[in-house]
Specification:
The protein is mostly helical and about 375 residues long. The protein has one domain. About 70% of the residues lie in helices and about 0% in strands. Helix 4 crosses helix 11, helix 7 packs antiparallel against helix 8 and helix 8 runs parallel beside helix 10. It is globular, with a radius of gyration of 20 Å.
Amino acid sequence: MSANTSPDLLKTKQHFQILDGLRGVAAVSVVIFHFMEIAQPNYEKNFIGHAFLAVDFFFCLSGFVIAYAYDNSRLKELGFTTFLKLRLIRLHPLVIIGSVIGLLSWLFDPFSNLYAKYGDINAFLMFITSCFMIPYPIIRERYFNLFHLNAPSWSLFWEYIANIIYALVLVKLRNKILWVLLVIGAVLITYETSKSGNISNGWGGDNISAGAIRVFYSFLAGMMVYRLGWIIKSRLGFVAVSVLTLAVFLFPFSNKWNFVSEPIIVILYLPLLVALGAGATLRPAFGKICKFSGELSYPLYMVHYPFIWIFFSYLEKYKPTMDQKAIIIPVCTVLLIMFAWLILKFIDEPIRKYLKTRMEKSL
């Protein structure tokens, strides 16, 4: 950052509050989906079987928000290094926090001793690679995740890469070139869905390339929604747009028709949702809800999965009935929301405030 850079450049631009609210709706949906895919592995019988598309929604939102915040010369004034520091301050504390929680759940899972098979060295390597966002798929008994201690980190891995490429390349490209890249991305999304049967991959050591395809298209789509001014002004409020968002996650999963429905949702519908959310009308009664939902979304996303592994171990050991699962899942979801709020207020926010203050003082 230049010595002449104003501290005002470090301030976050005004949020699109309904988009913040939708991010929280998507994060809660992901938590429920992760419980349900363990409780009911057959996605066709899973009532929220398409909630994995929340990741594509997050990528699209990210492209929109990053373009909104850093296009129009702000990135040039800040410089690449400062941009990267700001993104690390925003994102990385919870990467570390999630890794710590993941390590503790791995070592002290009350229903499983799987850690004993892999030993302390692998536990250490999983923790270090998780903290530094280095893919390390090793646990084949549990889906061969890129980041076993905190599985959702796979999408943060691609988020970081997208942010870096944006700052080095995409921000400089004209819209005509972005259109070409967007068409290529749409073709790749269609190809991946046809090849794999759905677009849910990207999280595992044997399907990592799908993650690149998903972020490639959706991040670019979000950028283009902002750059082309595709913000659809309407009287739709937070509730209405939330219903339209939930419709994606509740859309029936079909092994027969996913190759058609999922590309349509990702290529067309999710960018439309971002455009609608950005232009929707926020009624005063929902302002605090959207703020809370937006603030909670990232912590909830980044700290919930270690407890999904404990749920997995519990199911393996005790084999509860579906009626018992129907009680456990909503109760645990509420507890995780409360836990994520505590992590946000007492760990994440203080750390980010401290780091941001140090950066401002360095000016």
